[in-house]
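Can't paste images in this forum, so I'm doing it all in text. The chain is below; anyone willing to post the predicted structure tokens underneath?
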Amino acid sequence: MTKLIGMSIALAGFAALAIAQDVKYNFDQNADFSKYKTYRWEKHPKSLDVDDLTLGQLAKGFDAELAKKGLVRKESEPTDLVLVYQLAMSQEKEVTSWNTGYGYGPGFRGGWYGGMGSSMSTSTTNTINIGGLVLDMYDASAKQLVWRGMASKTLDAKAKPDKKQKNIDKAAAKLLKNYPPKQKS
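Text version of the structure:
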């Protein structure tokens, strides 16, 4: 039950992919990206399940950015591209330590040699949730991968819906910044 509650809190923050995320992409250098005009969404079978509100926010952000690139979303076949998304989450531990020490260095003090001091160290640990998104674009007729983008970012479970949408919009813009890729002439 605790694991389920923790996962729900983490998923609530999943939509907080923000501007400082790590983004990577790759593409088929032989693909003709000028021929792609329409797309439809599909979920990767191993994708993390998220709530419909988060999926709606992700779709809104990415659909708007894809429209700027000249692509039109369709709900059914035929389309030029099939966009397959995969969501994931991992956790890392952050350890913070500090020392409240003071003291005297070595030296002669009233007939004896040595130092004195007092010190106390304190450490805390936090769990950091990291969300990831992989976006694969497949040429629908050739059934071949032509573009792949990946983004990851620390999630903010306390972000409000409008802040989440703003962060998703920024994530979509950053991930798709180099789409369509500039190809050698």
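The helical segments are 2-12, 52-68, 161-175. The chain is about 25% helix and 40% strand.
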